[in-house]
Amino acid sequence: MSARLGDNVARVAVAALIVLALAFLIVPLLVTTLMAFDARSYLGPLPPPALSLRWFVNCFSQDTFAAGLRVSIALAVLAAAISSFAGAGAAVALDGAAFPGRGLLLGLFLSPLVVPAVVTGFALLLALSQVGISNGFIRLLFGHVIITLPYTVRATLASLAGRDKRLVEAALVLGATEAQAFRTVTLPLIRTGLVTGAIFAFAVSLDDVAVSTFLTDPTTYTLPVALVSAMRANFDLTIAAAAVLLMALTALLIFVLDRAVGFDRLIGQGMFRT
Amino acid sequence: MANRVELQAVTKRFGNVVAVDGVSFAIADGETVALLGPSGCGKTTILRLIAGFESPEAGALRIAGEDMTRRRPYERNVGLLFQHYALFPHMTVAENVAYGLRHRGFPKADIPARVAEMLALVKLPALAARHPGQLSGGQQQRVALARALATRPGVVLLDEPLSALDAKLRQELRAEVKDVLAAVGSTAIVVTHDQEEAMSLGERVFIMSHGRIVQQGTPDDIYAKPETRFVAEFMGRSNWFSGTLAAATQFRTDDGLLLDVAPHATDGAGHSLCLRPESIDVLPDGAEPGPNRLQGRVVEVVLLGAARQITVELAGGRRLLALQANRAAAPPARGEPVAVTFAASACILIPDEPA
Question: Where are the domains of chain B?
């Protein structure tokens, strides 16, 4: 086999892998979307013989879904805001100085990524009930801030690492105090990282089931938790409709983000805006 | 003239490494000094100490007579030109130049005029509204220079100011930086590892090695009278002979050559003889023998443009490097037998350091 043939085989293999990966990513979404518009009242084979909006109507007419969506959005907005402030602050502190225990502290901030969500949820439930916090929304907010913190810390750290540290020195030597240098130089340069972190935090919060399951109370629950329990009770395509709505919300988010900071910057290494 | 910048026995350590080892110097008002040395010699640390980014473990630092040892960078009136410009990428050229003016309490109404004046000084008046990313390297460095000088700092620090530029641009900009510094009459300290840059910008040159200043003087002085082999090698290329002084004006090399030198005190100690390539004349063979005339054969001729670099192999196998202005009608060819000569006064004797 010639070297050239080998190269061609490799190229075809890579292309095939990409197509396969895309298929796995997209096909389930397409199926879900199609089923959400299915007019049948039972789960039948594809394609649906007729289309309707009945599942969407059903989705909006169920109080649990509407209530869940309200809680989910309020929670995601609040959690993203708190997590952004706390995470960015922590990242700036961690980036600025070398002190003993810095690595440990960073690990602690990122630990929710590796600690099983079940453990985080259960531990938080126990700890909060010990200090007498039993309000479901407050409990959920604690949980969501904790699980979104790694994203805001990481996004800010990445943008801080990408910036030129001499710019702050340039500002200082030109007469700016540390606080002025941070406000006029560092902050504008890490803006992309802050926005990215906030968006990720919002998405992670909106999406969470595992931690939230432990922290809900009978009257306060998120949309994903409501969807899961609805699915257990009676499996119908209302969930597909809710999923399509969630997807639409995400797509809208990405569109806004692309307009605001540019999607390539968001997912590539371009955290540092020049 | 008053001293603008004064260091007294300043020492700075990083862990176990002594970056600056008890350095003292004084720089007069309006003077330009070049700190020259290889990387890691402590020259950049001295610059950072003066700017206030580092603080010394021992010693004192005064700017315009005022003790600055523990002041924060923004409490000192210092301008700094960074090697990689360090322009604020999210601000326009005009905003960059105005940054120091705004933070140093310059009257707000006068800022636009001062910015325009500075941009005119560095010959970039048309680019005020651009962002740094839209400028070439040379333009960026000019903007950085305008920014550093806008606030009329008491001392301007230049950190390898031209090393990020390509060779041709570097020469152009070097002359321009020199003109601009002269125009504003500022005291300046240039940190560089490039001896040409040091000699062309600095009225005085401080040679640094291992955290100390090993020699200081005018560029001419240091080039002509290096006190150590390190300084001689750092200031330019040279041919080396080791040996001893046989008499006040005679040097015997270890391989048996007898060379005439300028009068020196003979103390019997070992010396090295340094001969700059441009001091050596390459003549056609056949002329009568004389002092400091050695026979050899051309092994290589390299055209450098303005000059020709000729490598001559002597009878004993030793090779000498000679530099000849590119004016000779017929330069010696490779393989040609030649004679090399040099003046006794061109021989620089440097005592060997005790091992």
Answer: 3-233, 237-351
| CB within 8 Å: A174 and B90 | no
Cβ contacts of A122-129, under 8 Å, gap ≥ 24: A122/A214, A124/A211, A124/A214, A124/A215, A125/A214, A125/A215, A128/A215
CATH classification of B237-351 is 2.40.50.140, yes or no?
Answer: yes
Check residue A274 and give its pLDDT.
39
Please indicate if any CB of chain A lies within 8 Å of the CB of B225: no
Please name every residue paired with B313 in a beta bridge, in sequence order, or none if there are none: B297, B319
Burial of B12 per CB tally in 10 Å (0-12, 13-18, 19+): buried
Q: Which residues of A36-48 are buried (b: 16+ CB within 10 A; e: fewer)?
A: bbbeeeeeeeeeb
pLDDT at site A1: 55
Q: Determine contact: B147 vs chain A, CB below 8 A.
A: yes
List CB contacts of A37: < 8 A, sequence separation 6 or more.
Answer: A48, A51, A52, A53, A55
Query: Within a 10 A sphere around the Cβ of A197, how many other Cβ atoms?
Result: 30
- Put simply, whether B82 touches A (Cβ < 8 Å) is yes
Segment A39-58 shows an average pLDDT of 80
CA distance B151 to B161: 19
Strands (E), chain B: 3-14, 17-28, 32-36, 58-63, 66-67, 78-81, 155-159, 187-192, 204-209, 212-217, 239-247, 250-253, 258-260, 270-275, 281-284, 293-303, 307-314, 319-325, 337-341, 348-351
Q: Which residue of A has its CA nearest to B151?
A: A174
**Residue A122 CB burial class (10 angstroms; 0-12, 13-18, ≥19):** middle
Of B74, B87, B89, the CB nearest to A176: B74
Q: What is the pLDDT of residues B155-206, one digit of tens each?
A: 999 999 888 788 888 888 888 889 888 888 889 999 999 988 999 999 999 9
Average pLDDT, chain B: 89
Counting Cβ atoms within 10 Å, is residue A172 exposed (0-12), middle (13-18) or buried (19+)?
A: buried
> Can you give the pTM of this predicted structure?
0.79
Average confidence (pLDDT) over A158-172: 89
User: B3-233, superfamily in CATH?
Assistant: P-loop containing nucleotide triphosphate hydrolases (3.40.50.300)
Q: Give the list of residues 6+ apart from residue A124 with CB closer than 8 angstroms, or none.
A: A139, A142, A143, A146, A211, A214, A215
A interface test, pick of B88, B130, B134, B140 with most A CB neighbours within 10 Å: B88
The per-residue pLDDT for A268 is: 45
Write out chain A residues lying below 8 Å of B151, CB-based: 174-175
Q: Which among B53, B99, B133 is the nearest to A174, CB-wise?
A: B99
Residues of A in contact with B88 (CB under 8 A): 167, 170-171, 185
Question: In the predicted model, what is the mean pLDDT of residues A50-78?
Answer: 85
Q: How confident is the model at residue A61 (pLDDT cuts 50, 70, 90)?
A: confident
